[in-house]
Amino acid sequence: MVISESLRLVPPITILGREVEKDTKLCPGVILPKHTQVYIPIYILHRRKEIWGPDAHRFNPDNFLAENVAKRHPYSYMAFSKGPRNCIGFRYAEITLRIMLIHLVRNLKFSTTTKFEDIILIPKVTMTYKNNPQISIEVRAD
């Protein structure tokens, strides 16, 4: 849940592009013709209050409790894209992140005076920071 919430707020890819493969009806009167380029703003999607609630900009791992995930559209979270063209390495990335996080938290102590709200994110193709957060890392005593 912590990893998914982190990727929701700071997705590695902020925008996703696709080409429409066939004429697609979105709603009455709106049709996307075949070969139309569509861009999905992942960064904005992951912060929509209509999807994530009034505190969409705040870190809340409970967003990924099973009962909360079941209430949302399956495409409301797209850190690794979705569908047949999603990231081929997403399972490897998720497992690697979990293993790495376990080892880091077990062996190191992290501290910072920076608040998440004070970090200025710049959504480009990949997420960047305007002001890099300062983090202190110490080896944990056994």
TrEMBL record:
This is Putative cytochrome P450 313a4. Its cofactor is heme. Belongs to the cytochrome P450 family. InterPro entries: Cyt_P450, Cyt_P450_CS, Cyt_P450_sf, Cytochrome_P450_Monoox. It holds the Pfam family p450. PROSITE patterns: CYTOCHROME_P450 (PS00086). Keywords: Heme, Iron, Metal-binding, Monooxygenase, Oxidoreductase. The lineage of its organism: Eukaryota, Metazoa, Ecdysozoa, Arthropoda, Hexapoda. It comes from Bactrocera dorsalis (Oriental fruit fly). The gene is CP134. GO terms for molecular function: heme binding; iron ion binding; monooxygenase activity; oxidoreductase activity, acting on paired donors, with incorporation or reduction of molecular oxygen.
